[in-house]
Amino acid sequence: MKNKKITQAVLLIFVLGVWGTIFYKIYDKLHDDEDPSLPYEGALPAQLADSQADTFQLLENYNDPFLNKMPASGSGGASHTGSATGVNVSKAQVKPPVAVNTPQIKYLGLIKNNASKKRVAVISVNGKSSLLQEGEAVDEVKLLKLLNDSVLMLFNKQKIYIRKN
């Protein structure tokens, strides 16, 4: 009898631990403070900005896998200059990203009419609240897709997902 109570107590603690872990992970995902709508505005790393032509030499002194022969003695190797894709990249072709002032967009909520099945999003653009349906726009920001926990917005041909605050 005493052994059965100890077993039940240990199993109860284990079950509570498992369920606590599950609820913590769900809560953590729902209350994530990261804002995926902010674009990267940093400068290009120096390694990307200063790309140089790559020089390499191919050693062709191995057996031909199909003919099982060694290559002719005159072709000891070939020297090539270029990038791995075969296209030379010069400094003039690398353009830094243009800084775009993205408006401050917040998804505040969803209004749903059960009778007509229409859904309207409450969106704040630069502090100005608006009610938008899919396809409508305010201040050059267009609502593409309306979800329960986020919206897909279009600004300057760039798609931005915004989570509900």
Question: How many beta-strand runs?
Answer: 9
Largest sheet: 4 strands, antiparallel
User: What is the arithmetic mean of pLDDT?
Assistant: 77
Order of helices and strands: HHEEEEEEEEE
Helix amount: 10-25%
- The CATH C-level name of the largest domain is Mainly Beta
Question: How much β-strand is present in the residues?
Answer: 25-35%
The fold-level CATH name of the largest domain is: SH3 type barrels
Oligomer: single chain
Total helices: the number is 2
Instruction: Report how far apart the termini are.
Output: 53 Å
CATH architecture of the largest domain: Roll
| Domain module tally | 3
Radius of gyration: 30 Å
Shape estimate: flat
Structural class label: alpha+beta
Unreliable stretches covering 5 or more consecutive residues: none
Strand order of the largest sheet: 6-7-8-9
Spell out the key features of this protein.
165 residues, alpha+beta, SH3 type barrels, 3 domains, four-stranded antiparallel sheet, three-stranded antiparallel sheet, 9 strands, flat
Description:
With 165 residues, this protein is α+β, with helices and mostly antiparallel strands. It has 3 domains: 1-31; 52-88, no CATH class; 105-163, SH3 type barrels. 20% of the residues lie in helices and 32% in strands. The chain has 2 helices and 9 strands. The strands form 3 sheets. A 4-stranded antiparallel beta sheet has the order 6-7-8-9, with no helix packed on it. It is flat. The mean pLDDT is 77.
Q: How are the elements arranged and paired?
A:
Blueprint: H1 2-30, H2 46-49, E1 55-59, E2 77-81, E3 105-113, E4 118-125, E5 128-132, E6 137-138, E7 141-146, E8 150-155, E9 158-163
Antiparallel strand pairs: 1-2, 3-4, 4-5, 6-7, 7-8, 8-9
